[in-house]
Amino acid sequence: MDSKDILKFCIEKGLLIEPEALNLLSTSNDGESIKLILEKIKNYTRKRIITKKLFEQNKERVNEFFLDLPKENQKKLEELKIKLGLEIEISKKISTEIPESENLEEEGAPKENLKKEPMPAEFLLEGVKILSKNSSTKKKIVVDDFVQNLKNKFMELKNILQEHTDLDNLVSINKLSKNSPRVSIIGIVSDKKISKNKNILFDVEDLTGRVRVLINQNKPELYKIAEEISLDSVMGFGGFGDREIFFVNSIVFPDIPVLEKKHSTEEEYAVFIGDLHYGSKLFLEENFLKFIDYLNGKSSAKINTEKIKYLFLVGDIVSGVGNYPTQQKDLKIEDIEAQFQGLAELLSKIRRDIKIIISPGNHDGVRLLEPQPPLDEKYAWPLYNLKNVILTGNPAYVNIGAKKGFSGFDVLSYHGFSYPFYANTVPSLIEEGLNAPEKIMAYLLKNRHLAPTYSSTQYFPYEKDELVIKNVPDILVSGHSHKLSVDSYKGVLLISTATWEKETEYQKRKGNRPDFCKVPLLNLKTRAIKILDFE
Questions:
Q1: Please, how many CA atoms are within 13 Å of residue 523, restricted to the half-sphere of its CB?
Q2: What's the start-to-end Cα distance of the chain, in Å?
Q3: How much of the chain, in percent, has pLDDT values that exceed 90?
Q4: Confidence of residue 125 (pLDDT cuts 50, 70, 90)
Q5: Distance between CA 389 and CA 240 in Å, rounded?
Q6: What are the phi and psi torsion angles at 442 (to 5°)?
Q7: Looking at the DSSP assignment, which residues form a beta bridge with residue 123?
Q8: Who's near 34: CB < 8 A, 6+ residues apart?
Q9: Residues 6+ positions from 428 with CB-CB distance below 8 Å
């Protein structure tokens, strides 16, 4: 393909391409395939600059793009794949390790119901692909694990911030001096205070040092932005000063770019639910059975329900046991394994061609430390036996609806355990709190992290911080708040799910106003959303 044609295509798509990548791509004579690959890597990475390194960093995903091409085209591009540093032989089925149950026989788990083989998580059912991976948790945690985790968080978000054009003349903190002109720094906010003069003071650190950052109260617009900054966030600051104090003129959040909205080439539907709390005395089972009847076409629905292909359950699918001191009195089923058995029986009534993607929450018998692993097979084995169920961790990146010529929708599911912290601490979120989960979701997208403040959730210190929103999703779906909400932020569709549990005393005390048995139905072709009401 002629390099001029590649440049023209990139300009049309709002892309820049480095000379090395341009030269490599122009060696291929399959122009249409090159255009399709460029389109897909743009949609997947959300990057505007195409480099050879970008292909290498996203090797697995790019290999899958090649696999979607006709076999004849794949053969033509083998030499190009070598030049780009990609594998020649690629498999679509890449498995992810799921933690195995330990001492199942000693626990008395019924052998006949337990799956013996590891559950493949990268590709489980047609049209669904799990993009995130669950790391092993068997190693002993030491202090250095937390240090490496924070360093990784800082570097990931620093790399994102460096692409912002608002941050010019970037320097590390140890390079600040009185003779410096207007410069920008990137750092993690380790402390926040209000001075006697009502100025906001941050302690900001990078890998080279620490500096006191001042936002003057006489700059009301800037001051309002600074009030929104949470501790442990990684931010960009523009201004002037030295190693003692830095005076801020501008603040830059990592934020996400404005996305180009995707549309499937075929009419399919996805539905999103969460917070079933099966096993609770307050579980609305009759309403849930109506929902199942709807999915199975046993209702007067105006749409063709056969086109519903994906069902997301985003945590707290069972009520669990021992989640709070007096929970036993609220339970109809007091054994967590029996809760999963009852839920599996309900889900087994759903049409087999609907793919059910399930991620855990804080009630589901897995560790509270995030990222959470998939549901424990020791207790949730009945769900493992359902052939149309896919079990992910929390959070999880899932791709749905990919077709030939269409890369599918990337869905980021996160139960939302960190949300109450921000609803109670960020000034713009406090008034509505958990009754406006879409605002919390937008705030976290702006921070490019699902729990930027260390104390907002408990976390497992993997070397890589899995709560960083490195790849921007097409859809962010959450639960936990029990509040239905559908909104968008810079092209990302935000969905917060309603609950299937009656209002609890705890919610009444907290002033939460839950929504019940309401289900967002998303048309993947038109992006139209309808709210189904089974209350």
A1: 12
A2: 57
A3: 59
A4: low
A5: 55
A6: -65, -40
A7: 129
A8: 1, 6, 25, 28
A9: 228, 439, 443
